[in-house]
Design a protein that fits this description.
Elements: E1 3-5, E2 7-9, E3 17-21, H1 23-26, E4 30-34, E5 40-44, E6 56-58, E7 65-69, E8 71-78, H2 82-94, E9 100-102, E10 105-109, H3 112-120, E11 125-131
Parallel strand pairs: 1-5, 3-7
Antiparallel strand pairs: 2-6, 4-5, 6-7, 8-10, 8-11, 9-10
């Protein structure tokens, strides 16, 4: 048996299970997966949505599944220099890189070419495995 998840439930809804997905999978509108407890699920959602940490999905059977962001290999740049920070954001954004922007810190999916570009700008790049929650796109609707 497979649960079909077709709509968003209010985020404050309690969940019956959790599915942990990497960023790439959270961008898909159609996806087959398993919850963390092993239940098969099929997602069929409106196109253009990115599933964010904490979103709750449901279907006609009202079973609710909370989205969890999976830990992924990330490149991390930290600087208190506002000009360096802005330059790094500019160059990564110009390449349409999904960025998680935090105070004085940028995170993106590890890419050694991008790492070298940032080192060339005078920044230090470190690596870690963490959940990845990039910025929402400026032109995407978020109706839930």
């Amino acid at each position: 048996m497979m649960l079909k998840l077709t709509e968003f439930a209010p985020q404050e809804s309690p969940s019956d299970d959790v599915v942990t997905l990497p960023y790439d999978a959270r961008q898909k509108s159609r996806l087959l997966s398993k919850t963390d407890s092993g239940i098969k699920i099929g997602m069929s959602l409106p196109r253009g949505q990115v599933l964010r940490q904490g979103f709750v999905l449901t279907g006609s059977d009202h079973f609710r599944v909370r989205i969890n962001a999976a830990p992924e290999a990330l490149s991390i740049v930290r600087t208190e220099d506002a000009l360096q920070f802005a330059r790094a954001c500019y160059h990564l954004g110009n390449r349409h890189v999904a960025l998680q922007i935090l105070p004085g810190e940028l995170r993106f999916l590890t890419d050694h070419v991008l790492d070298q570009m940032l080192v060339g700008l005078g920044l230090t790049v470190t690596h870690d495995v963490l959940p990845f929650e990039p910025e929402h796109g400026a032109y995407h609707g978020h109706g839930h």
